[in-house]
Amino acid sequence: MRLPIIAGNWKMNATLKEAIDLVREMTERLDRIKGVEKVLCPPFISLATIKELITGSSIKLGAQNMHFEERGAYTGEISPSMLIGLCDFVILGHSERRHYFGESDEVVNKKVKAALRAGLKPILCVGERLEENEMGRTREVVTTQVKLALSGVSPPEELVIAYEPVWAIGTGRPSTPEQANDTIGIIRSAIAELYGEAIASEIRIQYGGSVTSGNIGGFMQQPEIDGALVGGASLKAEEFLSIVEQTAAIKKVR
Ligand code: PGA
């Protein structure tokens, strides 16, 4: 049985004060929801403060990015060892990083290796662009991204994958649950090719892209989908709580 995982990717939103207010609003109720791993991924500058606010709760933290080097002349970057003790997870290879900051599959691969070395759990994002989807290239794109990101990586039990079709992110136009389930099945087969069926059946794969409290149910009904990476809707306490609550209720009865 895979424990469902809902992660809130706040992206470049929330000042420290806004972050504190949002976490205060959610912590107690989020903590009480069982059967779902709950992860908040605020901007770097809020991690330490939020860490204190959630201490003693079942809520976990994730970073949104990380450099692959341990230290050095990389102005503005954050290293794996700086995140140790602050967060358990780190989002890697998000399509916004790939698109706006030119992150290649090779860089994502280095980051995955560095995260695992540091004991951080990567949330590895993959997903096809609109034109790739329209050309019927989804299978090829996600399989290639997964294989390149995991090239030379020994069986990564701590890995989480987020399937995020680029055309669904922030657009209000999510994938259908069936389509997402199919593609996640393809990703699981790619993992099976790399590491065997046993590991593939344990790795959690989320869906991401315009997830809301209104559509989470459909995604969570799907057997291959183990949770969600939530952007916009994770910035509203009631929305995020409802997404986590519905996930707990649906995955429990399955
Ligand atoms: P969205 O973002 O939920 O706002 O579409 C998801 C993501 O980019 O992780």
Annotate the secondary structure layout.
Layout: E1 5-9, H1 16-32, E2 37-41, H2 44-54, E3 59-63, H3 80-83, E4 89-92, H4 95-100, H5 105-118, E5 121-126, H6 130-134, H7 138-149, E6 160-163, H8 177-195, H9 197-200, E7 204-208, H10 216-220, E8 227-230, H11 237-253
Parallel strand pairs: 1-2, 1-8, 2-3, 3-4, 4-5, 5-6, 6-7, 7-8
What does it look like?
- This protein is α/β, with parallel strands linked by helices and 254 residues long.
- The chain has one domain: Alpha-Beta Barrel (TIM Barrel), CATH 3.20.20.70.
- The protein has helices spanning 16-32, 44-54, 80-83, 95-100, 105-118, 130-134, 138-149, 177-195, 197-200, 216-220, 237-253; strands at residues 5-9, 37-41, 59-63, 89-92, 121-126, 160-163, 204-208, 227-230.
- Helix 1 runs parallel beside helix 2 and helix 1 runs parallel beside helix 11 (237-253).
- The termini are close together.
- The site of 2-phosphoglycolic acid has 13 residues, from strand 8.
- 2-phosphoglycolic acid (PGA) binds at residues 9, 164, 169-170, 208-211, 229-233.
